[in-house]
Amino acid sequence: MKMIPYLSFEGQAEEAMNFYADALNGEISQLGRYSEAPGMNVPEGFADKVLHGRVQIKDTLLYFSDVDRNLNKGDQVSLTLEFASEEEIDAAFAKLSAGGTVHVPLEKTFWGAKYSKLVDKFGMQWDLNYQY
User: Fold this and answer.
1) Contact call for residues 3 and 55 (beta carbons, < 8 A)
2) What is the C-alpha separation between 62 and 93, in angstroms, rounded?
3) What distances in angstroms separate CA 129 from CA 10, 65, 109, one per listed residue?
């Protein structure tokens, strides 16, 4: 399993990606926009915003996204767990979601992964991902 910080922004994700890539001698390795998501109900004004982006800094990744909600201090970072098997993500989802709030149910996605977004019972934000 690999853990990756996921940084959320209110419309400045692409600017932040460029900033952190430059500041940390990294490079943008992925930049997907809301308009590229098939069948997704794209919030007004979000077509060109970052749905999911990655900055590679040596052996470290940072994930980025623009979100359609107001962010409070502390809400801007979640932890992404990248799983090696479907069994691992299923087990972790069952335990982490118990007593918490599921924002995106665990399901297969258009980007070729099984994914969920949740807040556990302690208020920690998690993105669970298994690339199949």
Assistant:
1) no
2) 22
3) 23, 15, 10
pTM of the model: 0.76
Give 100-121 pLDDT, tens digit per residue. Answer: 999 999 999 999 999 999 999 8
Say how many C-beta atoms besides its own lie within 10 A of residue 99's C-beta: 9
